[in-house]
Specification:
Layout lengths: L1 H20 L2 H18 L8 E6 L1 H7 L7 H13 L4 E7 L6 H12 L4 E11 L4 E6 L3 H5 L4 E3 L12 E3 L1 E4 L2 E4 L1 H8 L10 E3 L3 E4 L2 E4 L5 E3 L10 E4 H5 L14 H8 L6 E6 L7 E2 L4 H4 L3 E2 H13 L5 E2 L2 H21 L2 H26 L1 E2 L4 H32 L5 H9 L7 E15 L1 H7 L2 H21 L2 E7 L2 E6 L8 H25 L6 E17 L4 E6 L1 H11 L10 E4 H7 L3 E10 L6 E10 L4
Parallel strand pairs: 1-13, 1-14, 2-3, 2-14, 3-5, 17-18, 22-24
Antiparallel strand pairs: 3-4, 6-12, 7-8, 9-10, 10-11, 15-16, 19-21, 19-22, 20-21, 22-23, 24-26, 25-26
Helix pairs in contact: 1-12, 4-5, 7-11, 12-14, 13-14, 14-15, 17-18
């Protein structure tokens, strides 16, 4: 079951993430990073086969005309560009409304003379309460009667209002009308049967020998060459201003004659469009995030044509193959984060995040491949957080295990120390000043010989339980049981500035609790035991000591040995509470305890003589 969860949990996360990835919020977030890639790549070299004639603010100043301009102007523009050897003339200006009959006829007659012109129409949508009405709006009937070629100029906007796609065609019911960019490519080589050269496939849109990858059913991703004005611009008034045309207000410089001499339009694809602010035909592109500059619609069409001529498409990375990569990455990253400590995986995850973003940028910049930029980084972040949760739960379980396992053997303080720092379970010891308490039952061996094992175990359990409870309540830990003897330590692992006092207090309370036990045993008609307690203070080596295989948290040294010898003095000296302490302990606690000097003694195995005291009580209690 544990192994299954390592597969099941990543799969559930993947499903939830994939649902989130199709949200509008995520789409905008992803597109922002795509725009960063475009800006980082920067402006790219263009072929100079495409130029733009703009109707801008300067045009209005030069012509001193209001919009719409007389259509004779547009006819003259056509004638001038044909004279200049333009390869193709594309109007990104809609002649969908009639002006005056004569002007419309002149434009139509002029257009009919040439087969390299493309005019503009558009798809219009009328929103009603219960439905949307779509209609393709063609050029004026005079142009249609001359069978001029025309295409749509609709520009597709993403949900954030940016242009990143190019609409290849518009479809209303079963009628399809291609965009001016598609018509430019289809008719560029004077292909009379151009309609049969177009094939709308599910993945690619084919024009002659050009296979344009589709990003939606009717659009492709634009591979922008730069911000606005990347392509060469000419002013409409200057192209109009030939030797036979007079511009008002002293602007008449016959600028077109210079263009003609310099062959500025020779074999060029010429797009004519409006760039003046009053036309509202300017759009945000990926470069707008840096340049803060809108791109005229006519240059959007120029980018598409340039892209197709160069076979320079942005192709979407195989979604199926990416999902396979995503799935494998999810399983591996999940295992990584739940198996290794977060302090280590955080650096690995950061490297993986930057590596995935760099890989996405490399594929975009050098291979023209579009791969989801932020899905893998999002997966890595989610699984790192999930790893934190797993390790937190694991730590809680380990702490619970340590607490449950060691509470039976160690004081709660020591257990808490081990939980805070499990390294304290490692082998090793340090020198510390502590107080040690020895408690031993008098004549217990004869008791075991005259009582059944069941009785012996029962009374020993009752005695040890009662006294250990007192020790733990007074900040001590039970070092070990040696048969019927209890060895307790005060001052480690939790430091106690007044450890000697706590040892004395524990000894007095042990004596009181033992007195209560004695009364209980007498009432139960049972044989009564007696104990002796010894206390000593000093420096000892304390820690996890023993062998490589088995070690124990304990204390060793002369302080411990002396404490055991002091407890043995209870056999020689009769005291009120049967509690004897060393001079060292007395000096450390004399301000707070009541004690009497017993004697100066030489402890067994020791050469020096020390003073020993009997502990009577606590001053505050008296």
């Amino acid at each position: 079951m544990k192994k299954i969860r390592y597969v099941l949990i990543p799969l559930i996360i993947i499903v939830l993430l994939k649902i989130f990835f199709v949200s509008t919020f995520w789409e905008k977030f992803e597109l922002n990073f795509y725009d960063m890639f475009v800006v980082l790549r920067g402006t790219r070299e263009i072929s100079n086969d495409i130029v733009i004639i703009e109707i801008g603010d300067d045009t209005f100043n030069s012509l001193n005309e209001q919009w719409p301009f007389p259509r004779e102007y547009h006819a003259r523009i056509i004638e001038n560009l044909e004279k200049a050897g333009a390869r193709q003339i594309i109007f990104d200006i809609e002649f969908t409304e009639p002006s005056n009959k004569r002007a419309d006829s002149i434009l139509a007659e002029t257009a009919a003379k040439y087969n390299n012109l493309i005019f503009a129409g558009k798809l219009i949508k009328e929103l009603h309460e219960s439905y949307t009405k779509e209609q393709i709006l063609p050029p004026i009937k005079e142009l249609q009667e001359k069978n001029v070629l025309w295409g749509t100029v609709n520009i597709s906007l993403d949900k954030d209002g940016f242009v990143r796609k190019y609409e290849l065609f518009q479809k209303v019911r079963e009628k399809i009308k291609y965009s001016i960019g598609v018509l430019s490519i289809a008719t560029l080589h004077d292909n009379i049967d151009w309609e049969n050269s177009i094939h709308n496939g599910s993945l690619y849109f084919k024009i002659r020998n050009k296979y344009i990858p589709k990003i939606t059913k009717k659009s492709t991703m634009l591979n922008f060459y730069g911000p606005s004005n990347t392509f060469k611009y000419y002013d409409y008034a200057d192209v109009l201003d030939d030797s036979s045309f007079t511009l008002p207000l002293g602007y008449d410089l016959d600028a077109f004659e210079l263009f003609l001499m310099n062959q500025n339009f020779k074999n060029k694809i010429v797009l004519i469009g409006a760039t003046a602010s009053e036309f509202h035909d300017a759009h945000n592109t990926p470069f707008s995030s840096k340049e803060r500059q809108l791109m005229p619609g006519v240059e959007v069409h120029a980018n598409f044509i340039e892209m197709v001529l160069n076979d320079d498409y942005l192709t979407q990375f195989s979604p199926l193959f990416f999902f396979f990569i995503f799935l494998v990455a999810a399983l591996l990253i999940f295992l990584l984060n739940v198996s290794i400590k977060p302090t280590v995986t955080i650096f690995i995850n950061i490297v993986l995040i930057f590596a995935s973003i760099f890989c996405a940028y490399y594929l975009f910049n050098y291979k023209n491949l579009l791969i989801p930029i932020l899905e893998l980084p999002a997966l890595i972040i989610i699984f790192y957080i999930l790893g934190l949760v797993f390790h937190y739960i694991k730590t809680l379980k380990e702490r619970k295990f340590i607490k449950e396992a060691f509470t039976q053997y160690l004081a709660p303080e020591l257990v808490n120390e081990l939980i805070k720092d499990p390294k304290k379970l490692e082998y090793g010891g340090t020198q510390k000043e502590i107080s040690v308490l020895f408690s031993d039952v008098r004549a217990f061996t004869p008791y075991t010989e005259t009582h059944s094992p069941k009785e012996t175990v029962a009374i020993l359990h009752e005695y040890l339980t009662a006294l250990v409870e007192v020790i733990l309540a007074n900040k001590g830990i039970v070092d070990k049981f040696v048969g019927d003897a209890i060895i307790a330590i005060f001052g480690s692992p939790v430091l106690l500035d007044n450890h000697a006092f706590w040892a004395c207090k524990a000894a007095l309370e042990m004596r009181q609790r033992f007195n209560e036990l004695q009364e209980k045993w007498r009432a139960e008609k049972r044989d009564v035991l007696e104990i002796g307690i010894g206390i000593n203070s000093g420096t000892a080596t304390i820690g996890n000591l023993g062998s490589d295989q088995i070690f124990d948290y304990t204390a060793i040294g002369d302080t411990m040995n002396a404490g055991a010898r002091i407890e043995e003095l209870n056999k020689e000296y009769e005291t009120k509470n049967k509690i004897i302490m060393s001079e060292r302990t007395y000096i450390m606690t004399k301000e707070r305890i009541i004690a009497n000097l017993i004697d100066e003694v030489k402890l067994r195995g020791k050469a020096e003589v020390i003073k020993v005291y009997e502990l009577i009580g606590i001053k505050t209690e008296v």
